[in-house]
Amino acid sequence: MTGPGLAELRAGLVAASILPADAPLHHRALAQWLASGNAESWELIEAAAIENMDNAGRRSARDVAALGFASHGREPAPSLKQGLNWLGQRLWFQPQRPMTLEADGVAALGIALALSSLGPQCPEWFSNLLTRAASTLPLDPVDRSLFIVAAHLMDAPGKLDPSEIAPEARVVFGALAGIAVPEATYAAAWSALRMAVARPGGEVDARVKLKAFDLVAEHSIPARSGKLEPSDVVRVLEGVSRSFRRWTWETRPRTTTSTAVRWEIQNEYHVQNLLYAVLAPLFGDLNDEETIPPIGQKNPRLDLSIPSIGTIVEVKFLRPGIPMQKMIDEIATDVGLYKTDPRWTSLISFIWDDSARTEDHAKLVSGLEQLDMVVGAIVVPRPGKMLQGTKESA
Predict the structure, then answer these.
(1) Are 228 and 198 in contact (CB under 8 A)?
(2) d(CA 33, CA 17)
(3) Beta strands 301-306 and 346-353: pairing type?
(4) Same domain, 163 and 254
């Protein structure tokens, strides 16, 4: 399993979504809207938009859109109504005039929000603009998606099918526009987010993807909703080794009111407790030391189990001098016992190597993953600082 983790993916999107100081006002408004900005932030945006609207030489569709985002869910300001009337009197797609609103998905969405607050009827000029832009212009995926979302929000005749919307945008704006967001869309959005690459000038795209990331995570990650799979547990446990970077192992007190503390791991139960602390926030049904029906004279007991996904986490403690093959033999025996209970379909082996024989880990993992039921094997060596502590105490 390779690639960035969830935290790294989100941090990358956050960095890519930072708007420059001279970002267009309606881009700032969309960012605030996606983040549910506070009243003070909206006051600044509204003030700037109204100032531009009062100057005939400076006003633009972007200012009307910014007011549309700012007034969503509130009584529209008089300046917003005036701006909408002004836009309705203009001619669009003129051959000798550079396109503005016609090619600006963010502005189209902000204006759709404004118009939807005034009534359900979509003005003909705006309906025509939305459908023509989405159907004929070479827009980037975000702009095109926002035009389609705006058309659905206004129920504009001739609106394109929701399947034309980028999955990340559909996750973010589907509920707003009355568009269903099926499980396949969440899966497609996640696939796209994992491949997201920052690009110059792509801050709005990154903002939408960041919001989609949070919504996909909220929808799919809580195990109590049954969305996680055994492979997700493997990914989480593969990251446990990184936890030891901040593991408490002090050579002297950190404060004047405390003593030096070392969180020693001495046996399988300590490792089991560690994994319980890692997995419990994700899985509401996580159990420890659960027993399964007897098999002859044996009464099998599961170290950690997650019934919602039929998964067992089997913990082993590999001491110095114990051959690696013993771990494979023990897990193979466990698999034979657990297979008798149809509730369990996958097993993840987690081994704490107290001797830190890292040169043998790859072969051990390969052997374990060949066993029936085993969907993942993780071997974590005793960290170097803890090995040093062992030598000092010897």
Answers:
(1) no
(2) 14
(3) unpaired
(4) no
Q: Note the pLDDT of residue 384.
A: 84
Q: Which helix (H) or strand (E) holds 288?
A: strand 287-291
- Asked, for residue 324, whether it belongs to a domain, the answer is yes
On whether both 14 and 97 belong to a single domain, the answer is yes
What is the domain count for the chain?
A: 2
Provide the pLDDT for residue 284: 78
Contact 32, 45 (CB under 8 A): yes
pLDDT in the model for residue 1: 41
Domain span at residue 345 reads: 230-393
Residue 249 lies in a domain: yes
DSSP character string of 68-95: HHHTTTSPPPHHHHHHHHHHHTS--S-T
Q: Tell me if 130 is assigned to some domain.
A: yes
Q: If you write DSSP's letter for every residue of 300-346 in order, what string do you get?
A: -EEEEEEGGGTEEEEEEEE-TT--HHHHHHHHHHHHHHHTTSTT--E
Tokens representing residue 393 in the block: 């105490």
Q: Are residues 242 and 381 in the same domain?
A: yes
Taking alpha carbons only, the member of 103, 119, 121, 101 closest to residue 111 is 101
At 262-307, the pLDDT tens digits run 999 999 999 999 999 999 988 878 998 887 787 877 878 899 999 8
For 181, left (φ over 0), alpha (ψ -120 to 50), or beta? beta
At which of 220, 250, 285 does a domain end? Answer: 220
Residue ranges of the chain with pLDDT lower than 70?
1-5, 37-40, 220-227, 387-394
Rg, Å, the chain Cα set: 29
**225 inside domain:** no
Q: Are residues 129 and 62 in the same domain?
A: yes
